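Hi again,

Forgot to attach this to my earlier email, sorry! This is the prediction with farnesyl diphosphate bound. I've pasted everything inline since the attachment limit keeps bouncing my files.
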Amino acid sequence: MNKLRHVAIIMDGNGRWAQKQNKERTFGHYQGVENVRNIAIKANQLKIEVLTLYAFSTENWKRPLIEVNYLMKLPEVFFDRFLKELMDNDIKIDMIGEWKGIPEDTANVLKKAIAKTANNKGLTLVFAMNYGGKQEILQAVNSCINDPELNTVITEDIFNDHLDSGKYPDVDLMIRTSGEYRISNFLLWKLAYAEFAFVNEAWPEFTPEKFETVISDFDDRDRRFGGIK
Ligand code: FPP
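Structure tokens for the complex follow:
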């Protein structure tokens, strides 16, 4: 059995899933929010430590304003509906990405959820919001340069600690839904030795049962981390 501490998911395919049913793309995002709840509860039951979800990338600003505005409302929709249940399940919330640029209302909703769940001991559910992997690495480079106490050679550990995602373990398993085979600037440093699973289901149809199947497939993989067994 492989150790599974950190799972990361690119929740792709909401828009196409909705359009296939002649519905607005936003309907897909709304259903996607519901699935965040379902997968987070399952991840918590499976004793996964950290689940990082790609909720809004630095590139998503290129979308039409109406969709960007809708995506920025999703944290409010999510926490209005599910914060109580997250508390009941001892789930902790965190965020990685640039706060600067996120509308104030959205940032406040996220900060409130982070504060309220800070002492929870179950799964840590991390939303990558206004997040880009290259930007995260650059921010860590600049923070190393500007750290007055850092007058030494920068090691992997030191660099890692300057990353937004630094306090979390390396990603063990990265899942992308909707049949696309890309990383899309997600967690570039933390994915160094991750296993990948690309599934055909769109995010709203990626059920907890399917999630368990992907995890059991991960269990069967031979992880060698560059060594030999
Ligand atoms: C990609 O699908 C998905 C997103 C850009 C947003 C995903 C966000 C959620 C599912 C909810 C986030 C929840 C919280 C609480 C912040 P797409 O629109 O690119 O789909 P497409 O490839 O079919 O167009």
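Residues 6-219 form a domain with the Undecaprenyl pyrophosphate synthetase fold (CATH 3.40.1180.10). The first strand starts at residue 6 and ends at 10.

That should be everything now.

G.
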